[in-house]
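Folding problem:
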Amino acid sequence: MKEFCSQCGERLQKTVRDVTMTNRNYSATVKGVAGLFCDNCHEIEFDETTDSGKRIAAAY
């Protein structure tokens, strides 16, 4: 398992979270996103054994 963020080098947290995305006047929350989360730069590496990445992509 990867322990550090590829973007900023901070430690990643393996967890499930609700993720809110905002783009101009549009905002959507995707519930139950599984992956490795960086609390410093907000990078997410999705758990490939779930559909989290596909659900985030569909929300955009």
Summary: The mean pLDDT is 94. The chain has one domain: 12-59.
